[in-house]
Amino acid sequence: MPAEDVAALYSPREDFASSFWVRIIRGTYKNDVGYVLSRNEDKVEMLLAPRERPYDNDHGRKLLFDIEAARQAGCTVVEGTSGVVTCGRLIYQQGLIRRSFVKQTLEVVEAPHPDDLAFHDLAGINPPLIQRTISSFSAQLWQEDDLVRVVQGEFVNTYGAVLAVDMQNKTATIEIDAENCLTGQYCFPISHLRRVHRRGDSVKVFAGPDKGAEGFVVAIGDNLTIAVRRDGEDIEVSPKSLKCFPGLILE
Length: 251
Known about the structure:
With 251 residues, the chain is mainly beta. It is built from five helices and 18 strands.
């Protein structure tokens, strides 16, 4: 969806040109976050984690739509292109429900909580956008001296320490101490940076199977090993279990 069309969803006083996530503010899907597909006058079509499936009675619980489960329950499923299926009067795409809402029932969220995006991630919806969104969410909790890596531009793969974060302008000032002409202070878009964890960093897991665990990093490899403070237990957080969510382990 073009950025100018996204901005047109909202009042002229608001600037949402880079936003593609919206929250429903009333109804069955109240507080759920959806991915905007298109707009037709005052109606906005989006993809949401389903709370309704014709083949079960577990309404209210978020689960991806399952074609085989629907067929086994005797439901008629009509498959289209791009992962779109119709079951009864409901339309699903890549396991998410496809629904339209009037503009007045929506509000933009630029950096929703990672949990709000878990089903969109599982469904493979716009991975680059999810990556940028999680980076923005993570940056809200960056602190001075946190280590980050530049992932885009001429400074790619350069490391530096956070000096300041400007969430309004979506930038961060980084101090680079390199043995070449790169040494100095630079301002980068937050989307060009990724948090890097070091031994001893205080962390909290914000999403995934170990959500809520707090402690500090004791080992770094393919997995991060965290010493949990509450009972001295060591737990291992796997990047595979967190899928494409960088920065979910946050201070």
